[in-house]
Structure formats: C-alpha cells, structure tokens
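Example (one chain per record):
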Amino acid sequence: MTSRRGNRPDPTLQEYEDDIGRAKAAGDREEARRLEGEMNGYLFSLWDDDRARLTVALRARAIELGVSLPGRYHSGQPTEFWEQSQQDGEFYLTSEGIRESRQSIRDELRWKREVRSHWLAWFAGLTGLIGALTGFLAVLSAVVS
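Predicted structure:
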C-alpha cells in the first residue's frame, strides 16, 4: 500500500504526527483532519493485519492438534469470539476469541503431556522390574552354580 507520499512505503506514525502538527500550526484544520483520518485508517489496517496473522496461526495450530476454535455464530447470532474486518470483510478472532483459542490449545497440549507422562511412568516401572528380575536371576544363577 502506498501513502500520500506517492510510491514511498507507508509513513511511520511519527511522520503522521509531525505532518498533523505542522498542519495545525499552519492553521490548516482541514488538512489536519484529513491526515488524522488517514492515520486512523493506517492504524486500523495494521490492527487487521495483526489479527489476521494471529487468527491464521491459531487456526493452523488448532487444526494440527485437532482442537476446534470458538464458533462464529450461536443460535444464528454472532458470538463475541469473532469480528468482521472493516478493511477486507474477513472474520478475525477478537481478544476473547484469542484467549479462548489459546486456552483450548493449552488444554490439549497439557492433556497430551499427561498421557505421555502416564506411559512414561509405566515404562520406568517396567524397566525397574526387568532390572530387578535380571539381578535376581544373576544372584540365583551364582548361588546354584
């Protein structure tokens, strides 16, 4: 996306603030309002970009783990977990949706660790038992011979 500066990349927020300050100092309220609106649009696009990346990452992780994300609709009504972007019309997770998704992912990872640790405990016990039997058989063999 190019800015009001032609082919240069988007200006930084500091550049916007400097330009707005210069416009206000020159008494050009119309230009200051236009720049503020442009800056707000830029901030919304940054916000949407961040939400889009985070939603995609959480969706990919949830699919990988077999976890479902919160639903978009409940009884035909939109839920508090998703919101539609004003920039591109896509749906992105809200802060509550992100929190809920992360919690579901954490719960699944915790469950998988617990299952692994359960089997690890059995494996460790079995290894100890085999070691004890081997030692017992070695002593028994020495006594018999």
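Caption: The helical segments are 13-25, 29-65, 95-144.
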